[in-house]
Design goal:
Elements: H1 3-6, E1 11-16, H2 26-33, E2 37-40, H3 42-47, E3 55-58, H4 66-69, E4 76-81, H5 89-93, E5 102-105, H6 110-118, E6 126-129, E7 147-151, H7 157-167, E8 174-179, E9 187-192, E10 205-210, H8 240-250, E11 257-261, H9 267-274, E12 280-285, H10 288-300, E13 307-310, E14 325-328, H11 335-344, E15 350-355, H12 358-371, E16 374-378, E17 381-386, E18 389-394, E19 398-404
Parallel strand pairs: 1-4, 1-5, 2-3, 2-4, 6-7, 11-12, 11-14, 12-13, 14-15
Antiparallel strand pairs: 7-10, 8-9, 8-10, 15-19, 16-19, 17-18
């Protein structure tokens, strides 16, 4: 589709630095001056005030881009911080209109400015936006030697992040607070996580962190199969080795949605979401206490976005978006739950069920006979003390059925 068929550009999305109009090029200045309506936050409208000739319009509360879309076809400008396509309003707007209807004028992002001030190659740094998001999202990124650039919400968040680092065993990590980057009030200050005592922090701040692990630090490995003791549970937990095999069978990919039916401690859904920041998961658990425990585990392990549905399957499936993958950890011995789960799965999706009892194994064998798929027998043994010597203690074998929906 060419630009003409998509419509001529009517929207200008203009990135601003703390230097305001002085940092804009001629094309961006002309777009700003030619706009009949200019949308932005109070700070952005103030920074660009000298270049606005049309009507200045603050964003509604709660925030919405609907007023911009209502003026589609008119000359409209939107002001944003830095690069509007990097965690900015530009990305939001271009989900609703074709790219050919907008012109984007980016400035250096806060992450780029922070990397230059620190002398860090941006490609070798993890950049994470915690703006209006749960700081628990930082947890999977804490490992020895990591360099992090964090986009924050306000003046209070740096202290909260420092406290999180110290609590997780990374107390000696070096934190640099970069305030009002690119403006006349720019300032860089340093502290460790344990001794973080900076006050009067500018609300527009970015954090640069060099992660140092103390002897009590427990970081999350990047491979599936987290240690069992990282999860609170009442025994309803897919054990580490079986969990790793199950995650491999489920085949997570960015943006995919998992249903974890019979979520228990939430371990499968949590590790699914840890596979990629865009992975999504819904845990369905009939017991409210287990659902609450899974929710706590998810936050502690850095995936607070895990959605828990407390209810009995298959009734609890109603209204949920169809999954790309489904793990049946509970209810496999109920034909109604099994059938509803198979029906809910998207075409091309993957279905995995594990069985420990002979009765549930027989049901999986019957499904395999009827539908095909793959069967796997998982047998594990652990070395344990036997008197003054060591011997093998076998765990209960697990039968796994994996089926890809045509």
């Amino acid at each position: 589709m060419d630009e003409a068929s998509r419509g001529a550009p009517w929207l200008s999305i203009i990135g601003l630095g703390e230097d305001g109009l002085a940092g804009l090029g001629e094309a961006a200045r002309a777009a700003l001056a030619g706009a009949g309506t200019v949308f932005g936050g109070a700070r952005h409208l103030r920074l660009a005030a000298g270049g606005i000739t049309g009507m200045a319009q603050s964003w509604p509360s709660p925030f919405s881009v609907a007023p911009v879309l209502a003026l589609r076809g008119q000359a409209v400008a939107v002001l944003a911080s830095g690069d509007p396509m990097w965690h900015g309003v530009g990305a939001t707007l271009l989900r609703d209109i074709p790219a050919g209807e907008a012109r984007v004028f980016p400035q250096a992002s806060a992450a780029s400015l922070a990397a230059t001030r620190m002398g860090w190659p941006l490609a070798e740094v993890t950049v994470l936006s915690l703006h209006a998001r749960d700081p628990a999202l930082l947890r999977p990124h804490l490992h020895p030697g990591a360099r992090l650039i964090l986009l924050t919400s306000d003046a209070a968040q740096p202290a909260a992040i420092a406290a999180l680092l110290a609590a997780e065993g990374f107390a000696t990590s070096a934190i640099t607070v970069l305030e009002a980057l690119g403006g006349s009030d720019e300032r860089l200050r340093h502290a460790t996580a344990a001794a973080f005592d900076l006050d009067g922090i500018h609300p527009l701040n970015t954090l640069a962190i060099e992660v140092l692990a103390g002897p009590d630090a427990r970081w999350l490995p990047r491979a599936p199969g987290l240690p069992d003791d990282l999860f609170q549970h009442d025994g309803q937990l897919t054990k580490r080795e079986v969990r790793a095999i199950t995650l491999a069978a489920l085949r997570p990919f960015p943006g995919a949605l998992l249903w974890d039916v019979g979520a228990g401690a939430g371990s499968i859904g949590i590790e699914w979401m840890l596979a990629h920041p865009a992975c999504r998961a819904i845990g369905i658990e009939v017991r409210a206490d287990r659902a609450a425990r899974a929710e706590a585990n998810a936050r502690a392990l850095g995936v607070p976005g895990l959605r828990l549905v407390s209810g009995e399957a298959p009734a609890a499936f109603a209204g949920l978006p169809p999954p790309d993958a489904l793990f049946l950890g509970g209810g496999a011995n109920d034909p109604c739950v099994f059938d509803a789960a198979l029906a809910a799965l998207k075409r091309g999706g993957v279905f995995v069920a594990n069985a420990v009892t002979l009765e549930t194994e027989a049901l999986l064998l019957a499904r395999h006979a009827a539908l095909g798929g793959e069967l796997l027998r998982i047998g594990l043994s652990r070395a344990v003390a036997v008197g003054g010597m060591t011997g093998w203690r076998p765990a209960m074998p697990v039968t796994q059925w994996v089926w890809h929906k045509p």
